[in-house]
Design brief:
With about 240 residues, the protein is α/β, with parallel strands linked by helices. The chain is about 50% helix and about 15% strand. Helix 3 packs parallel to helix 4 and helix 7 crosses helix 8. It binds NADP nicotinamide-adenine-dinucleotide phosphate (NAP).
Length: about 240
């Protein structure tokens, strides 16, 4: 993949991962559009040389409006990173979770991204060197017991990514998966785990993106994927931590 002179949209661009990715791509001489809701962060992004677009991915009308704006303002869009995400941690089996909380997690992590992708495919199809990159998680390969809805949403995005890859082969649009390890962001704030910085993560990812690796991730996550596939009981042990 040529990593210069692209027009790139990153949802979840106001997150540390999306921002670090955007900065690296901006330095490589691309037009980078960061999408998010946090207006203060979007203003900062504008000051830092990014294009910005506000959109709540849980609201279909906002997604439709954003896609029209993108088509009019950025007709050369050729790369879409579906990177927004929310994670609620709770034990699904111990209390009744309000439907709106479950729906919100699914809407932002899955439905909104699928709608945005579908609306932007005609534009991507029109342009050369077109890519869709979906941010998933190791929890999409093996679920964490206090994050079942999040894990299920990421499993859905993994499945969607594979299906879309085959579907869009005829159009010449390349579909990749981006699987961050535990990274130091708002999502993992307060978690007592070893975390990678978003900048370090992006340093690993950029060369893999250039090579169009199907799964963009770090070696530890590739090992986890292998363990999850062949030794699920071990994956469960890794995610549950040491017995207390
Ligand atoms: N951090 C990790 O350890 C880790 C590991 C594996 C995968 N991931 C994935 O990496 C991606 C980035 O996560 P992060 O860790 O950087 O999380 P984060 O810091 O919590 O950021 C979440 C991002 O999603 C956006 N977002 C949330 N709700 C939204 C909505 N309704 N509409 C539009 N955008 C919305 C936020 O934008 P606004 O606040 O501006 O709305 C923000 O940019 C996610 O897909 C996450 O699942 C993270």
């Amino acid at each position: 993949m040529n990593l210069s002179n692209n027009t790139i949209l990153i949802s979840g661009g106001t997150s540390r991962i999306g921002w670090a990715l955007g900065q690296a791509l901006l330095k490589l001489n691309n037009t980078v559009i960061l999408m998010g809701r946090n207006q203060q962060k979007l203003n900062e992004a504008h000051q830092a040389g990014f294009e910005t677009i506000s959109c709540d991915l849980s609201q279909q009308q906002e997604i439709e409006e954003a896609s029209v704006t993108i088509q009019n303002k950025y007709p050369h869009l050729n790369m879409l990173f579906n990177n927004a995400g929310v994670q609620h941690n709770y034990d699904f089996t111990e209390s009744v979770i309000p439907i709106h909380k479950i729906a919100q997690e699914i809407n932002i992590n899955v439905t909104g991204q699928i709608i945005l992708t579908q609306l932007l495919i005609p534009l991507l199809d029109h342009n050369q060197n077109a890519f869709i990159i979906n941010t998933t998680s190791g929890l999409g390969a093996f679920p964490k017991s206090d994050g079942l809805v999040y894990s299920a949403s990421k499993a859905a995005m993994r499945n969607f990514t594979v299906g879309l890859r085959y579907n869009l082969k005829k159009n010449g649009i390349c579909v990749l998966e981006f699987m961050p390890p535990v990274t130091d962001t708002n999502m993992t704030a307060g978690r007592d785990e070893q975390k990678m910085s978003a900048d370090e993560l992006v340093k690993h990812i950029i060369p893999q993106l250039r090579k169009e690796k199907k799964i963009l991730t770090i070696p530890k996550m590739r090992l986890f994927l292998w363990i999850a596939f062949f030794f699920p009981f071990l994956a469960h042990k890794i995610l549950s931590g040491p017995e207390k």
